[in-house]
Amino acid sequence: MSIQSAKKYIDVARVTPQGGGVLSVANVIDFNAGDNAGLGAEYQTDACADGGIWDEFCYAVDQNLCQGAAPTPPVGGYKQLDEQPDLVEGEPFAVYAGVECGSPGETPDEDRARTRLGYVESRQVDQRVWVEAGAGSSALTGGSLLQAIAEAEDVAAQEYGGVATLLIPRSLVTCGYAGDLFVWDPLEGVHKTHQGTLVANVAVSAEEIRLTGRITLMRGPVLTASAPETNRPDGSCDPRRALAERIYVPLIECMKYAGPATCGVSVAP
């Protein structure tokens, strides 16, 4: 025999939002409502510079001989300078969450929508930046996770002057810790490789890693809105609704690479 009874509604503490991901490693810059950064952003960087090696020491930058003799091309050719700093550009996207209530006594409000956004925001940013990092990317050969990371760090060391970023799905990060490929930096609160490359344990499902330069995220304020129940001309009605959203502008510096990676930490024969 079963006894039917009304259940008591209780209040419980909110669960801690999931951490990690792109937001844990990105250079996050907040902007205010109405700032035109929400339409897109750009900046110049010198971290992509090629530079060069010079061993004709008697030649000056102006291509004249140090002793004042008539200029002649050096064995290695003249110094080649970059025309201008590299431009980093980003386009906006919005992350949002909302709630609608159609049952009597249920009152959706903007605070609840804001709370819901706080629980999904990190993974939404992960998924969008993952796509951005893959768009127009160059290919890595990849292989096991160990091989993929080794190749990526080799590429980063040759092409980028700053600390690189690896976007790695959480399942592969678990494999990496099992193989001692990563360390946790308690001071910065981030995952890193043993060579100091930042690791974003992104909330995506893929057997692939992505390599970038520094990731900057322009982040707007949380905007909320609500609407009452609305009666349509056909007699139907829309329930009460509340929405919270935030605009981001991702800027990825200098390089984008992507390649396959499997849950392995050994070098394949």
Mean pLDDT over the residues:
88
| Shape category | globular
Number of separate helices:
4
Strand content: 25-35%
In the predicted model, the low-confidence regions spanning at least 5 consecutive residues are: none
When the domains are counted, the total is 2
The rounded distance between the terminal residues' Cα atoms is 65 Å
Q: Helical proportion?
A: 10-25%
Name the features:
269 residues, 17 strands, single chain, 31% strand, 20% helix, eight-stranded mixed β-sheet, five-stranded mixed β-sheet, 2 domains, globular, alpha+beta
Overview of the molecule:
- By secondary structure, the chain is of the alpha+beta class.
- It has 2 domains: 191 residues, no CATH class; 27 residues, no CATH class.
- Helix content is 20%, strand content 31%.
- The protein contains 4 helices and 17 strands.
- The strands form 4 sheets. Strands 5, 6, 7, 8, 9, 10, 11 and 17 form an 8-stranded mixed β-sheet that branches. Strands 1, 4, 12, 13 and 16 form a 5-stranded mixed β-sheet that branches. A two-stranded antiparallel ribbon has the order 2-3.
- A hairpin with a 4-residue loop joins strand 9 and strand 10.
- The N and C termini lie far apart (65 Å).
Could you give a short description of this structure?
The protein is 20% helix and 31% strand. It is α+β, with helices and mostly antiparallel strands. It folds into two domains: 22-44 and 86-230 and 240-262, no CATH class; 58-84, no CATH class.
